[in-house]
Amino acid sequence: MPQPEDRIQWMIKKLLPKRIKKRVMHAWKFATARYVVVSYPKSGRTWLRATLTFYFAERYGLTDPPLLEYANLHYLDRRIPKLYFTHDDDPNARPEALGRDKSRYRRKHVLYLARDPRDVTVSMYFHRKKRDLDLDVPIFEFANGPDGGLRTTIEFMNVWAEALESIPASLVISYEAMHAEPEETLASALRFLGETPDPESIRKALERSRFDRLQAMEKKGEFESGRLTPADATDKDSFKVRRGKVGGYADYFDEAQRAVLDEVVEKRLSSFYSPLLARLR
Predict the structure, then answer these.
(1) Beta strands in 125-268, from DSSP E residues, in sequence order
(2) Contact status, residue 243 vs residue 223, Cβ threshold 8 Å
(3) How far apart are the C-alpha atoms of 16 and 214, rounded to whole Å?
(4) Residue 150 · residue 144 · CB < 8 Å
(5) Counting beta carbons within 10 angstroms of the beta carbon of residue 241, is it exposed (0 to 12), middle (13 to 18) or buried (19 or more)?
(6) Which of 79, 180, 247, 269 lies 20 to 30 A from 260 at CA?
(7) How far apart are CA 33 and CA 41, in angstroms?
(8) Does 1 score more than 50 pLDDT?
(9) Domain residue extents for the chain
(10) Domain over 33-280 is classified CATH 3.40.50.720
(11) Can you give the three-state secondary structure of 56-93, one letter per residue?
């Protein structure tokens, strides 16, 4: 099923030069969406996106909808809001190169998705090594290095911790809360998005978005989206939906390496995220 589009999107795709097409499309989507979902890559956005897709499908009777992307479900049912998803910055940059000015978000409703930066870093490592194919170093070297590793993840989170204080309409949810309190966390996100949560639709959406089910769907290519396809169907580390384990970073480092990474988090991560880290202890 082709994703529904309106005339402006069609014109941007068909008429603009390739060199500016992507930039103009993103600018237009940002300008026309009331709700913006912000997260550092590998923070659980695909899981959140799938869960919301299944919820709206159950709630509004959509059959085999595409994975939620900006306004594609809104065009199927106008009660579903337009959501602009963004990672906001370059995840491969050094911490000092990240942008600090988030003033353009102040008139938006910002749903910010956080995750333990150590788990994020491990997931990013496998994404770049197995999917982007632009990384060929040992995992600890990447995690403790200057470009796109743990320090970049933490700095991104710190920048947003400060920015959220000046964004009147914002909500922070975490990957860990999605695991520990899935019904309450999804309901909170839906209320923020202007929805009156339907408990039965939430229950069915969460059942459909279990990690084993998403992995099976990804392997079969059931979602009509390049976002949810494995790079190698025989290698689970190449899947977009990889493990989904809270605290799983510890499986990839020895005791001394874990101590180094834990110290970086303790010293550098904003106290804004203390409730998140407290949940993990």
Answers:
(1) 170-174
(2) no
(3) 35
(4) yes
(5) buried
(6) 180
(7) 20
(8) no
(9) 33-280
(10) no
(11) HHHHHCCCCCCCCCECCCCCCCCCCCCEEEECCCCCCC
